[in-house]
Amino acid sequence: MSRNARAADSSGKRTAGADRVLGYLLLTFRVYPQDNQYVSECPELGTTSCGDTIDEALRNIREATGLYLSAIERTGERARIFRKRNIPIYLRHPHEGQVVTARAEDTVTVSVVPLIAPANGHGKTSAVL
Q: What is the pTM for the complete model shown?
């Protein structure tokens, strides 16, 4: 998380020179073994990735999801896609879950992802994964 993103508190209020938190996403990252690797996915957004280990697959799905969120923000598609996929933006910090086992072969983690507006009011909103 960037220094500016950390400077904004969970209520979304800005501290001096900090970016402002507009809201939060609650995203699920699921990892499961397939063949000789681990497949990872974010079912809310439909992003997928993989890795040789669970940790690598989680890092890769977070990166892929962050790139996807940046792309849909940059192209102006975020609002339409969030509506279509029924992805809520929480105004307050929701409860962040722990890593849990959904099935014996699955690892699932729930992450709270802040949506950040630039401090200068210019530019696009970004998500911090």
A: 0.72
